[in-house]
From TrEMBL:
This is Bacterial surface protein 26-residue repeat. InterPro entries: DUF285, Liste_lipo_26. Keywords: Membrane, Transmembrane, Transmembrane helix. It comes from Faecalicoccus pleomorphus. It comes from the Bacteria. The chain crosses the membrane at residues 7-29.
Length: 263
């Protein structure tokens, strides 16, 4: 005859434990696991949730590559020892999206040399803590003939950025349409020290060219701005204020550098 103690043990082993395991399994299957995913249609989704993956497979095709998530890695790259994970597959990438909001501190080289990318949507990037955007979009989409567009830049908080050198250098340089959607009008550049080659040859051949109005950008901290823009005189479609903006920053950089005894 089963004692009361054995009866409770039996209930625990054969009833309670399976129920707990069932609910744990259900929780685990619903748990969000993040990664960066490249699909067969060339869409790279940074920080994509596992819960969104099946839906995105219907839209973008099967997964061909997965990389460590931003949450796991932090994505601090350089051009020598730690390249972006997707660099080795750069010729596949046609579009970039951010799946879930991320807050980096350094965005250097993220989309550097992604020659065939046509569209980049960075509206879900919280840039309030970013200090460097150097080489961020350098030569991105430079082999595109039709349209090169970056979305979401108009919502960026750049108040802590100190380095924007080569940021858009030659991005979309062959594209007929070059657009930084929403414009960069409101960017806070008060802490930016370096802007050399920032827009050099960006959208160089475009018939439709738009980056917004930079006339209100702060020059408070700039010490280097040479070749911020290239000579766009051969393309009448480029905003003719570029040379004025560049002169403003170069002149300010000379004054600021002298005041810091950097000349």
């Amino acid at each position: 005859m089963m004692t009361k103690k054995l009866k409770y043990i039996y209930i625990a082993i054969y009833i309670i434990v399976p129920v707990i395991m069932y609910f744990f399994l259900q929780w685990y299957l619903q748990k969000e696991i993040f990664s960066t995913v490249l699909y067969t249609d060339g869409t790279l989704i940074i920080e994509e949730s596992s819960l969104d993956k099946e839906k995105n497979k219907e839209k973008h095709g099967s997964v061909i590559k997965e990389y460590p998530s931003f949450e796991e890695d932090g994505y601090i790259f350089d051009n020598e020892d730690h390249l972006p994970y997707w660099q080795k597959d750069k010729d596949w990438i046609k579009a970039i999206e951010i799946g879930h909001r991320i807050q980096p501190t350094d965005m250097s080289f993220w989309f550097n040399d992604l020659y065939y990318v046509e569209s980049i949507d960075v509206s879900k990037v919280d840039t309030s803590q970013v200090k460097s955007m150097a080489y961020l979009f350098k030569e991105a989409g430079c082999f595109i003939d039709d349209t090169f567009v970056i979305k979401g830049l108009d919502s960026w908080n750049t108040s802590n950025v100190t380095d924007m050198q080569w940021m858009f250098r030659a991005a979309g340089s062959d594209a007929e349409n070059f657009k930084l959607e929403g414009g960069l009008n409101h960017w806070d550049t008060s802490k930016v020290r370096v802007m050399v080659f920032m827009f050099y040859f960006a959208g160089d051949k475009a018939k439709n060219w738009y980056i917004g109005d930079l006339s209100e950008w702060s020059t408070a901290s700039i010490i280097a701005a040479n070749n911020m823009f290239s000579n766009y005189s051969n393309n009448p479609n480029i905003d003719d204020r570029c040379s004025k903006w560049m002169d403003k920053f170069i002149n300010a950089s000379i004054v600021n550098a002298a005041s810091e005894n950097l000349n």
